[in-house]
Amino acid sequence: MPASRTTSEKRAQVIKALAHPSRLLIAEALLDGEQCVCDLQELVGADMSTVSKHLSLMRSAGVLVCEKRGLNIYYRLACGCLGDFLRCVDQMTPARPRQKSCC
Amino acid sequence: MPASRTTSEKRAQVIKALAHPSRLLIAEALLDGEQCVCDLQELVGADMSTVSKHLSLMRSAGVLVCEKRGLNIYYRLACGCLGDFLRCVDQMTPARPRQKSCC
DNA sequence: GTCTTATTTGGCTATTTCGCCAAATAGATG
DNA sequence: CATCTATTTGGCGAAATAGCCAAATAAGAC
Fold first, then answer.
1. Phi, psi angles (nearest 5°) of residue B100
2. CA distance A93 to A75
3. pLDDT value at A18 more than 90
4. How many CA atoms does the CB half-sphere of A78 hold within 13 Å?
5. Of residues A103, A64, A27, A85, the one with CA closest to residue B73
6. Is position B89 within any domain?
7. B90 in any annotated domain
8. Among A83-97, B1-15, B16-30, whose mean pLDDT is lowest?
9. Average pLDDT in the B19-23 region?
10. Which of A13, A29, A12 is nearest to A21 (CA)?
């Protein structure tokens, strides 16, 4: 059956949470396991508040979950499938050939 | 090895091409096979020029390829893995539970 | 209790993205 | 050739997103 518009909207919200270089960099880093906000800030190299907003967006989209332990808050991927997701993305990221136009 | 910033940027461009409800709806429809622009316009229900720009963006991101036959231009998915991609997205699209905040 | 330290939130400007309209283009048809 | 049909492109205002700063919050340490 064809996807409904509301299904596409829900899915798009999740995809959007990964469709930003800094957010994707964060998600990729978390493939190796959880990290605290301050480590992710260092990774991304942006203002702490900026990173925090990215994390919050990814969390509310269902991509990340977090947990407080001691002084820090640790984020991790909500789902183990991100590797597969990225493998598919890489199949569409050809080093070179991309159609500029038809015909 | 960790993903580099430029790798994440390339990937993010592909993901961005799918991170919009109308564009995702188009991609989902193309799971069942190619369609011409006018069919996709009807599906999306936006102005023809709007749909054309979405298609062009997806094409230059490497998500779609197109081909002209007769009067029409037919678009199809560049890669067969989109189904897997969406299955992963759906795992992160829980009907209900989503972390509002930590702790 | 006060003082830190880690993180989030509010507010603001700058940038990007979206969607329509109108005009341009490409190619089939007569 | 002129004309029609399908699609793309240019341009512009409106809306959404990004990133910084400053202020607020939460919880552990003292």
1. -75, -40
2. 27
3. yes
4. 23
5. A103
6. no
7. no
8. A83-97
9. 98
10. A29
State whether the beta carbon of B50 lies below 7 angstroms from any atom of strand C.
Answer: yes
Give the largest Cα separation in chain A, rounded. 60
**Domain-located, residue B50:** yes
pLDDT tens sequence across A45-70: 999 999 999 999 999 999 999 999 99
> Which pLDDT does position B96 carry in this prediction?
62
SS3 B6: helix
Residue B35 has pLDDT above 90, yes or no: yes
Task: Give how many domains chain B has, as a whole number.
Answer: 1
Domain that holds residue A67: 7-83
Tally of CB atoms within 10 A around A12: 21
Residue A59 lies in a domain: yes
The CATH number of the domain holding residue A14 is: 1.10.10.10
**Minimal Cα–Cα distance from A57 to chain B, Å?**
10
Shortest Cα distance from B48 to chain A (angstroms)?
17
From CA B12, how far away is CA A24, in angstroms rounded? 7
Distance B101 CA to D2 C1' (A): 66
